[in-house]
Amino acid sequence: MKSTTFSTLVLSIMTAAGTAFGHGTVDVFTADGMKYPGPLNVNITFGKGYTPPADSATRQIYMLEPLFSTPEGLANTNMTCGPSASSSAKTIAPVTAGSNVSFHFRSGNPGSPWPHDTGPILTYMYRCPANTSADKCLPGPNEKGWFKIDQQGKDGKGIWAQAAMMQNESISVPIPSNIPNGDYLVRHEIIALHNAVILGKAEFYISCTQVRVKGGSTDDSALSGAVMVAFPGTYKTNDPGLYKPQDSYTFPGPPVLASNASHSDAPLPSPAPTQPNEPTSTPSTGAPLSSAPSASPTRCTRTSGSLPATPASTPSTTQSTTPDQCARKVSKRALRLRRRLLQGRFNPRPLRA
Fold it and tell me: Which InterPro entries match (predicted)?
């Protein structure tokens, strides 16, 4: 009886955990060269023995499941800072204005990278009120205080920025160089679009990290032209960036803060293109490869009238070969090539023989 009960309990835990394993949260936040661990990467219940990590600057969420782009999901207060928007982290990370911070994400499955590779990554900031530290501040659900500092979509080859996360890479985000000093929340938003052909099926993974900006401006002029928005309340379920996104992607939400726009709106860099006729595998110093042997090997002089005759004043350096001899050479060469292909020992070197 005890064995049955224990087995049932283990199965229930594994089933519940398996639901979360498909998603994830911030693993490491880096600012000014310092690395801060992310919150716990499990579904938790607040008030039941939970203690936030002492050295984490990213607020804990209580579940790893996404919010969806349904009208109800987009109106949920969890759109502010993710599930459990009222939680706070124990640490405030100092960050220099004009520097880059980075986010590394992990899957809910231990040891696995982020599981999605389709969709953009957007980042907003919220300036905490005067005399309110970042671990104590939380914008109201209708408060228009968030401004966008970064948005990353596709690179020049159409690869989503999120694909880098799936390759276990961190996402770098520039902090505006001229924003006022003080405490802020950095709202990092991942939108997974692999199911967005269905209305309401875009997935949101949202986190908030507490930072203290230094080296910025001493006045508010840098934010005077910022488009401030509220979360929830900014997105609509049928926004072009959330439903049936096109090849030319339209980001949801406001434009990036003008002083940071040059960092964000340009396409992400893509790998250097291959030069024309450059081989994509091991280079060969022999003749270019083709699907069939050439009808005119370099040692056989073509006699077709399509080529101009060699001027009489310039003796030819190519040894003349009769058509029958040329045909026999081509036939032997084709036979050798075919035999090597069949034997799985193809090497372009024989083409130089």
Answer: AA9 (IPR049892), AA9_LPMO (IPR005103)
Say if residues 98 and 151 touch (Cβ distance below 8 Å).
no
**Where is average pLDDT lowest: 35-39, 174-178, 196-200, 273-277?**
273-277
169-226 confidence digits (pLDDT tens): 999 999 999 999 999 999 999 999 999 999 999 999 999 999 999 999 998 888 988 9
> pTM for this structure?
0.69
Q: Are 235 and 252 in contact (CB under 8 A)?
A: yes
- The answer to whether residues 250 and 241 touch, using CB atoms and an 8 Å cutoff, is yes
Claim to verify: residue 260 and residue 296 sit in the same structural domain? no
Alpha-carbon separation of residue 73 from 19, 26, 34, 154, 198 (angstroms)? 19, 21, 34, 25, 15
- 233 with 297, same domain: the answer is no
d(CA 229, CA 252): 12
Strands 182-192, 203-214: parallel, antiparallel or unpaired by DSSP? antiparallel
Please check the confidence at residue 294 and state whether its pLDDT lies above 50: no
Token pair in block for residue 241:
């960036």
Which CATH number characterizes residue 168's domain? 2.70.50.70
**Domain with 350 in it:** 292-302+321-353
Question: Cα–chain-centroid distance for residue 275?
Answer: 26
The first and second tokens of residue 322, run together, are 């009769």
- Number of domains present in the structure of the chain: 2
Which residues, 6 or more positions from 315, have their beta carbon under 8 angstroms from its beta carbon?
Answer: none
- C-alpha of 72 from chain center: 27
